[in-house]
């Protein structure tokens, strides 16, 4: 198979208490011309995985190959990969031009004039024409980020890795650069692996998302497929879907602290239910005494007290306390604004408003 | 840091303390001795200088000063840089002990280092005795005494710790991702080293090399004792001209030349150290260091550690061993020697009256040296604390940098000249100190002050300014802030600085040799007298006194290592 192929990678590091397993059987692929995002919380092994792919460290077990060639015996400087570091690692003793030219000089196939042309080209690509002579320490955070991108793109690597490249920047700059970065990578049809802990970055940029947790892949697929059908509670929570409720399923319904809820598909035994925050809207407002505990599938599913509400423009984020559970929903902002302390009733607006997560618990 | 513009007069008042001290006890004696010397020049100052500069011998001395210093520095780097690499990038058992061990020579008196090498490889040293025994030789096969090799070895032994510390520390905090970035851009490991690591380390290496060069350039005891009469750098020649030939005008010219060179080195050093403040991506040690994992790195670390261990332990152990073994080797008699274990030399030190008393009582020299060292410590702290406080508050201001350079100057000034200046100028009111024992602590404080200031400044700098601001908002006056916040937080650094001052005073030789009165010798002065006399007893006493100094200095160095705060290490 062409592209990058990572198979069953294991890696441990020595640790005061013996050894710590950082990667525990990681397998995934990156197709040529595709941008994949490696997503996961800090400490999940993302950076280690990048070091292994880049050849900066060696795996204990498993295989990494590029276009069906095993890379085990190829040292870092012969892999022809690019790596853009978190906080950039620009060489402080070289100016912008020499930083970008470094990889070209190492390749030894570029003439001096070709190097000048290529550096100017990549500088133009990242929108910093005329920065050649600048001292890298005089650059702003956003400029450093672009120079680092230019440096890793200049030698035309067959595969580019980006390690949390926007992590050090402020929010607005980040939002702008993520779009630019995506456009640049796509215009070059660059095969790339983008590492981040922020799911919105991964969704904005990647064709495919690989979600890593505690040294193993939890789920991979397109951003939409991950968001629409998370495999398990960890994935759901990591993607910001926090309305998770333990329940006991029996066929088409499940019993939980909120009462008996209808299920989209039949299940048995203990499960975790996900109430999608964007799939509910307010039903008719009821009085505080009107609490129907045995809701029928068509009537309002959830009754609770409004604890907090935040107007977010397109949606109204509303936190509802419901039978001791804190749930939050993104209600359409066109609905009447509920007051804190009001009792609110919510009805599902789509078929997958309630989902059963394929966790271990449901495997019966 | 402390707001620069808020209490300027307090700052200048504090700066006046060290500046005033240097003016009275450094500049004044120096000017005095130059004036006196040139007044005695029969052909006038100008002609004396011309005569000195047109003499081939002067240039030979200057040439040798540079030559031996450059060679020593290169060899020190050759051992120090691989060592710095190992200390910077690897964690291994016994590492802090190795660091302390390599640092011990630095605070050891030059005379003791010379004596240690004498005990290892001198004509009566262990190496030669062993080889003679092994091959039934009549003559010692290793002729290291009075050779350039002996000087170089001692200089490496002495100064490697400077490279290990300042370069190792800088290297240890260097972000390894810079090297990794080079690797992923296609640079091989050796290309990465030459094009990324080395250029990044360059300012740290240059600063360390310059400091090592300056110490070697002005080296005194090592060249005088290990080099013998055949070798003289400027410092030794000044001593010869002053002490042996009483040619004060020539000595003054040489001292001036040395002073000008030192000034250049100090300025260059301050400039280079400032370059180290470049905002390089600094990473904590825990991020950059790991245990050696592959067999290659294990082999590398193992070999280098073994090499350093051997090089730094052998002379010290030889010295200690030589102080408890008597080699009955009478003058004029050759043949086999019968080593016998004895504590006689230590007993002689403790005995207040003894046969060696003709050259001074060892017991009383220990007492005098201890007293001088305590006085030096008190004085150096008194001056060093306010100085460090000013320097920490305004690290990059011009007055602070000038003060920093000024503090380094006495280290490179001829101790002989300065000592003579003391005798000459501090003998009349209002500063009639000629008969006062305070003269020696004053001279020692000049040498100890830069080390004290450099131990205290990083600790003071590590105090977050917020803490001071919080104290000030709660109603503490500047002096109270210092007493209640700064002082408790830097107490460990103060103890380390005190240990530095104490050991430097114990080991100082050059100035003491001139200004100590014959009846009040310091330990190094007495060691020198004993080494110059024939006989097993005198040699043994010299070794025993040196061992005592070594133990005290080693203990102090271990204490300094333990008490260090902050991450900056300049010495």
Could you list some keywords that capture this structure?
heterodimer, A: 364 residues, alpha+beta, Rossmann fold, OB fold (Dihydrolipoamide Acetyltransferase, E2P), 2 domains, six-stranded mixed sheet, five-stranded antiparallel sheet, 8 helices, 18 strands, 23% helix, disordered C terminus, B: 571 residues, mainly alpha, MetI-like fold, two-stranded antiparallel sheet, 25 helices, 4 strands, 74% helix, 2% strand, disordered N terminus
Largest interface: A-B, 28 and 27 residues
SSE order of chain A, as H and E?
EEEHEEEHHHEHEHEEHHEEEEEEEE
Q: How many domains of chain B? A: 2
Number of strands of chain B: 4
Termini of chain B, distance in Å? 23 Å
Q: Span from first to last CA of chain A?
A: 36 Å
CATH superfamily of the largest domain in chain B: MetI-like
Find the structural class of chain A using helix and strand composition: alpha+beta
Radius of gyration of chain A over all CA atoms, rounded? 25 Å
Regarding quaternary structure, how should these chains be classified?
heterodimer
Q: Do you know the CATH architecture of the largest domain in chain A? A: 3-Layer(aba) Sandwich
Widest sheet: strand ordering of chain B: 1-2
Category by helix and strand content of chain B? mainly alpha
The proportion of strand residues of chain B reads: under 5%
Computed CA radius of gyration of chain B, to the nearest angstrom = 25 Å
Total beta-strand segments of chain A: 18
Total DSSP helices of chain B: 25
Largest sheet of chain A: 6 strands, mixed
What fraction, in percent, of the residue positions of chain B are helical? over 70%
What sort of overall outline of chain A do the alpha carbons produce when their principal axes are compared?
globular
């Amino acid at each position: 198979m062409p592209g990058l192929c990572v198979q069953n990678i294991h890696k441990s590091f020595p640790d005061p208490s013996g050894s710590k397993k950082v990667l525990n059987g990681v397998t995934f692929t990156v197709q040529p011309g595709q941008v994949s995002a490696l997503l996961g919380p800090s400490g999940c092994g993302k950076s280690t995985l990048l070091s292994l792919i880049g050849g900066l460290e060696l795996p204990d077990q498993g295989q990494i190959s590029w276009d069906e060639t095993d890379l085990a015996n190829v040292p870092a400087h012969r892999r022809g990969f690019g790596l853009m570091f978190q906080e950039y690692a620009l060489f402080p003793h070289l100016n912008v031009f020499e930083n970008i030219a470094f990889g070209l000089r190492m390749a030894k196939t570029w003439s001096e004039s070709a190097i000048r042309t290529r550096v100017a080209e990549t500088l133009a690509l990242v929108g910093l024409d005329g920065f050649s002579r600048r001292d890298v320490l005089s650059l702003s955070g956003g400029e450093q980020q672009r120079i680092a991108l230019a440096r890793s793109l200049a030698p035309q690597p067959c595969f580019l890795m980006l390690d949390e490249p926007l992590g050090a920047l402020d929010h607005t700059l980040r939002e702008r650069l993520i779009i630019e970065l995506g456009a640049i990578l796509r215009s070059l049809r660059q095969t790339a692996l983008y590492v981040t802990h922020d799911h919105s970055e991964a969704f904005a940029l990647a064709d495919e998302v690989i979600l890593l947790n505690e040294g193993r892949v939890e789920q991979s697929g397109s951003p939409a497929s991950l968001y629409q059908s998370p495999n398990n509670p960890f994935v759901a929570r990591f993607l910001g879907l926090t309305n998770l409720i333990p329940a006991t399923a029996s066929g088409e319904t499940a019993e939980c602290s909120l009462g008996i809820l209808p299920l989209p598909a039949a299940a048995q035994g203990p499960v975790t239910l996900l109430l999608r925050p964007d799939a509910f809207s307010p039903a008719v407002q009821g009085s505080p005494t009107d609490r129907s505990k045995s809701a029928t599938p068509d009537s309002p599913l959830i009754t609770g007290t409004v604890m907090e509400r935040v107007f977010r423009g397109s949606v109204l984020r509303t936190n509802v306390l419901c039978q001791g559970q804190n749930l939050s929903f993104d209600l359409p902002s066109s609905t009447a604004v509920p007051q804190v302390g009001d009792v609110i009733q919510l009805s599902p607006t789509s078929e997958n408003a309630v989902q059963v997560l394929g966790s271990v618990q449901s495997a019966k | 840091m402390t707001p620069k513009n808020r209490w300027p007069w307090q700052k200048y008042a504090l700066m006046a303390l060290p500046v005033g001290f240097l003016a009275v006890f450094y500049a004044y004696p120096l000017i005095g001795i130059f004036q006196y010397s040139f007044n005695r020049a029969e052909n006038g100052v100008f002609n004396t200088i011309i005569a000195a500069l047109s003499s081939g011998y002067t240039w030979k001395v200057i040439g040798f000063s540079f030559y031996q210093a450059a060679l020593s520095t290169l060899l020190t780097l050759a051992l120090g840089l691989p060592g710095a690499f190992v200390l910077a990038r690897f964690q291994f058992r016994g590492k802090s002990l190795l660091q302390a061990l390599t640092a011990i020579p630095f605070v050891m008196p030059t005379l003791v280092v010379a004596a240690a090498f004498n005990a290892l490889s001198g004509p009566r040293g262990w190496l030669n005795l062993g080889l003679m025994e092994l091959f039934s030789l009549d003559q010692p096969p290793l002729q290291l005494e009075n050779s350039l090799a002996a000087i170089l070895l001692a200089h490496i032994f002495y100064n490697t710790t400077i490279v290990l510390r300042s370069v190792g520390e800088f290297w240890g905090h260097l972000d390894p991702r810079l090297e990794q970035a080079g690797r992923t851009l296609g640079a091989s490991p050796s290309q990465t080293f030459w094009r990324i690591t080395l250029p990044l380390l360059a300012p740290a290496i240059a600063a360390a090399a310059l400091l090592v060069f300056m110490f070697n350039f002005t080296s005194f005891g090592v060249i005088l004792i290990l080099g013998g009469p055949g070798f003289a750098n400027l410092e030794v020649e000044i001593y010869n001209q002053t002490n042996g030939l009483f040619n004060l005008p020539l000595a003054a010219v040489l001292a001036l030349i040395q002073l000008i060179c030192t000034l250049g080195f100090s300025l260059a050093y301050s400039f280079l150290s400032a370059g180290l403040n470049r905002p390089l991506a600094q990473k904590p040690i825990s991020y950059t260091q790991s245990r050696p994992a592959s067999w290659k790195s294990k082999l590398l670390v193992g070999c280098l550690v073994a090499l350093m261990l051997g090089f730094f332990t052998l002379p010290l152990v030889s010295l200690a061993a030589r102080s408890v073994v008597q080699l009955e080797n009478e003058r004029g008699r050759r043949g086999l020697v019968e080593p016998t274990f004895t504590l006689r030399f230590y007993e002689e030190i403790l005995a207040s009256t003894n046969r060696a008393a003709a050259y001074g009582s060892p017991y009383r020299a220990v007492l005098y040296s201890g007293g001088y060292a305590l006085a030096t410590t008190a004085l150096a702290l008194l001056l060093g604390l306010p100085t460090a406080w000013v320097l920490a508050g305004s690290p990059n201001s011009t007055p602070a940098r000038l003060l920093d350079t000024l503090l380094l100057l006495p280290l490179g000034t001829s101790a002989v000249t300065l000592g003579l200046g003391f005798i000459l100028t501090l003998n009349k009111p209002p500063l009639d100190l000629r008969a006062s024992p305070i003269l020696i602590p004053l001279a020692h404080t000049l040498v100890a002050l830069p080390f004290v200031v450099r131990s205290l400044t990083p600790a003071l700098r590590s105090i977050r300014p917020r803490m001071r601001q919080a104290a000030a908002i709660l109603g503490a006056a500047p002096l109270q802030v210092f007493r209640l916040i700064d002082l408790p937080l830097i107490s460990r650094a103060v103890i380390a600085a005190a240990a530095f001052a104490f050991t430097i005073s114990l080991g100082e030789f050059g100035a003491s040799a001139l200004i100590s009165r014959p009846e009040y010798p310091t330990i190094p002065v007495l060691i020198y007298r004993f080494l110059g006399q024939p006989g097993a007893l005198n040699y043994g006493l010299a070794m025993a006194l040196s061992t005592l100094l070594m133990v005290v200095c080693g203990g102090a160095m271990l204490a300094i290592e333990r008490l260090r705060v902050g991450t900056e290490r300049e010495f």
